[in-house]
Design goal:
heterodimer; A: about 575 residues; alpha+beta; Beta-Lactamase; 5 domains; six-stranded antiparallel sheet; about 45% helix; elongated; B: about 130 residues; alpha/beta; Rossmann fold; five-stranded parallel sheet; about 40% helix
Chain lengths: ~575, ~130
């Protein structure tokens, strides 16, 4: 037992201890060591008496050998009860104080870490506490003005949104203190000392001490939302004004938004999808070769997560006529897809018409050129043959130049007309079964002399066993073109390699060179007419060779193509339909 | 034994071609060459007789090669006179077979140096 309490208990027991028949006193509580007071020696006839000390949980024991004043016992019990009760109060108070201090520290650290400003007011509307964020938000001097003690009838620099300055009785903390009102999410407009406008979201709650007010600065969020809303408006206006159809598909592939231009194509109405997203109604879409399309671009974009651009689709309109559309789709991060669709039927037919007119013009021009060419080349040939007498040596070289140029012009004219015939399908093809190895062998043979002269080795790197049904002369023409290009673009000592591989139902013959490669800018035009990567004089062709190859390959049921090689050189390939073994 | 080819009538509206053909056939082939710049002129010259073979351009203004050929074939005097057509649009005849009354179709531009020998070969192969 604590010595101070023991002393006070001793004092409380004094009236009892002076009783002549009392020999020993003891106060005992729970596990605590008892307080023993030996008053005088015990006698053999002594008795032991115990009394509870009120509600303290302690007992008072008395050893006596005869009667003593019962009032003294009652006094002692009452005194002891007072002493013990008093000590209990002190202990509880101390522990309550500790706990309060701990909670306050916790609360303080929470307040300090909050990004919201927190203001604590007392019942007189005096600001008694605030956290760092509040100081940062308002500055110390302005915080002072937010107390009633300072006496203004208005909260300076704070306004109702779109209204005047805030009166003090409108200040949420005031309302919480005076009206015991809970203020929830009230938006206020605050002007900072530097003139900047901030949007504050305020809560206030009455507490015993007064009121607590929390303030969040929503300016950035508010501005972002305003910008977003403005953007949405701009985009809606823009999308609405587009001739191109634009639609937004939700994660389930239903139309969530669309502009007027997209309504017809997708078969859903703007006003309907605004109520509820709907599935698009697109049937009978075909590709450029009029084959049915199983997956639309927005579905492809959704499935692959990648943008799909420039897909051409044919679809019938309500009147049943086929229209052509250029479509694209871009997946969004949230799983939705934005798709666009443009009707380019008129552009497509205009382009086709213009292409046809161009072809006709070139064809007519080529025909018209044949007559003067006949005279020109003919006259030159006769001159060279001496039909008009001996040509003086000084003129012979000039005649040769004219003759070479005339021959080149003749080749060009013939190429143009050949191409026209192949594309028109009026070139007779002689189809027969040929071993690919034979076709390759003949192609290598055909360029052997020229390649040897240039020091370039042309080799077949594998032994293909495939058989193709094709026109050997036309294949020879294509491979000769590839090989002669490859050889011409190689340096002495380089190799040109022929290889074969399976490509589905086709056999692919590839010609690989190790020359400088095709300039990147030129690659997309490689197989188009009159395309040449370098000045014509340098190589002597008219730029029709590869487009003739392409037309021939298509006529044979195959195709040609090009693949740039990462290190150096190029691969030109030809595919031919394989014959079943 | 067929008698050798001697006289050739060249019909073309292009004077330069006539000049080239004429030079080729005269100096390299040694033929007697007559010239006409259109169908009417050709028929007029044929009416005079003495023409072994006609080298006839197809594309000509007014009376073209086909009309000229038709007129020749409907005239007993020229019904069998061998005709060789010259044309820049040779593919027209590649798709279809050449007219049966024509010996051959020569594509423009042609090689004038070998023209004479080609005509001789055609003349030799022609039915009597």
């Amino acid at each position: 037992m604590n010595p101070e309490i023991a002393l006070r208990l001793e004092r409380a027991l004094r009236r009892l201890s002076v009783q002549p028949n009392v020999s020993k006193l003891r106060v005992h509580r729970g596990d605590e060591p008892p307080l023993n007071l030996d008053v005088r020696p015990a006698r053999p006839e002594s008795n032991w008496l115990e009394r509870d000390i009120g509600r303290s949980g302690a007992t008072l024991g008395v050893e006596h050998h005869g009667a003593f004043d019962p009032a003294a016992l009652n006094d002692a019990v009452a005194w002891c009860e007072d002493v013990l009760a008093a000590t209990a109060d002190v202990r509880e108070l101390a522990s309550a104080r500790d706990q309060a201090a701990r909670q306050e520290a916790l609360l303080r650290s929470v307040l300090m870490t909050l990004t919201d400003g927190v203001l604590l007011y007392d019942r007189d509307m005096e600001l008694i506490e605030c956290n760092e964020s509040a100081v940062r938000m308002f500055g110390a001097s302005r915080l002072d003005q937010m107390s009633l003690r300072e006496g203004p009838d208005r909260i300076e620099h704070v306004f109702r949104p779109g209204g005047g300055p805030l009166k003090f009785e409108e200040w949420p903390a005031y309302r919480a203190v005076k009206n015991r009102e809970w203020v929830n999410r009230e938006l206020l407009d605050y002007r900072r000392a530097d003139g900047q406008q901030r949007w504050l979201l305020v809560n206030a709650a009455p507490v015993a001490a007064g009121a607590v007010m929390s303030i969040a600065d929503l300016t950035d969020f508010h501005e972002a939302r305003a910008i977003a809303e403005e953007n949405v408006q701009v985009w809606q206006a823009l999308v609405g004004a587009l001739h191109e159809g634009v639609a937004l598909f939700d994660v389930h592939g239903r139309v969530e938004e669309l502009n007027a231009a997209a309504e017809q194509v997708l078969g859903v109405r703007q006003m309907d999808v605004r109520e509820e997203p709907r599935m698009a109604v697109v049937t009978g879409a075909v590709d450029e070769q009029l084959r049915p399309v199983s997956e639309l671009p927005y579905q492809t974009a959704k499935r692959t997560g990648r943008p799909v651009t420039g897909v051409v689709l044919g679809m019938k309109n309500r009147r049943g006529s086929l229209r052509w559309y250029l479509t694209s789709a871009v997946p969004l991060r949230d799983g939705r897809v934005v798709a666009s669709i443009m009707d380019f039927t008129s552009v497509k037919s205009a382009a086709a018409e213009s292409e046809q007119r161009k072809d006709e013009f070139i064809s007519t021009l080529s025909h018209e050129m044949r007559t003067p060419l006949t005279s020109l080349a003919g006259a030159l040939a006769l001159l060279e043959a001496g039909a008009a007498g001996a040509v003086p040596p000084s003129a012979a070289n000039l005649v040769q130049i004219c003759s070479r140029s005339a021959a080149r012009l003749t080749r060009l004219v013939n190429d143009v007309l050949d191409l026209e015939k192949i594309v028109a399908g009026s070139v007779p093809l002689t189809l027969a079964q040929h071993r690919v190895s034979d076709l390759i062998h003949h192609a290598v043979e055909a360029v052997a002399a020229a390649s040897r002269q240039l020091g370039v080795e042309v080799v077949s790197v594998d032994r293909p066993v495939a058989v193709v049904a094709t026109d050997a002369d036309r294949v020879a023409q294509i491979l000769a073109n590839f090989l002669s290009n490859a050889v011409q673009h190689s340096s002495p000592g380089d190799r040109v390699e022929l290889s074969t591989s399976e490509a589905g139902t086709h056999v692919r013959i590839a010609v690989r060179d190790y020359g400088p490669g095709v300039p990147a800018a030129f690659r997309s035009r490689l197989f188009t007419r009159f395309a040449q990567a370098e000045p014509q004089a340098a190589r002597g062709g008219a730029g029709l060779g590869l487009s003739i190859c392409k037309a021939l390959a298509r006529a044979l049921g195959g195709d040609v193509g090009f693949a740039a090689q990462p290190d150096r050189g190029s691969v030109f390939w030809l595919t031919l339909p394989a014959s079943p073994p | 034994m067929k008698r050798p080819l001697r006289t050739v009538l060249c019909v073309d509206d292009d004077a330069d071609i006539l000049a080239v053909v004429s030079l080729a056939l005269k100096s390299l082939g040694g033929f007697e060459v007559h010239l006409a710049n259109g169908g009417q002129g050709a028929l007029a010259r044929l009416a005079k007789g003495g023409i072994d073979l006609v080298l006839l351009d197809v594309m000509m203004p007014e009376m073209d090669g086909h009309e000229t050929l038709e007129a020749m074939r409907s005239n007993p005097a020229t019904v069998d006179t061998p005709v060789v057509l010259m044309t820049a649009r040779v593919q027209l005849y590649q798709a279809a077979t050449p007219p049966p009354t024509v010996l051959a179709v020569i594509a423009k531009p042609f090689d004038p140096v070998s023209l004479s020998s080609r005509l001789v070969a055609l003349w030799e192969s022609a039915p009597q």
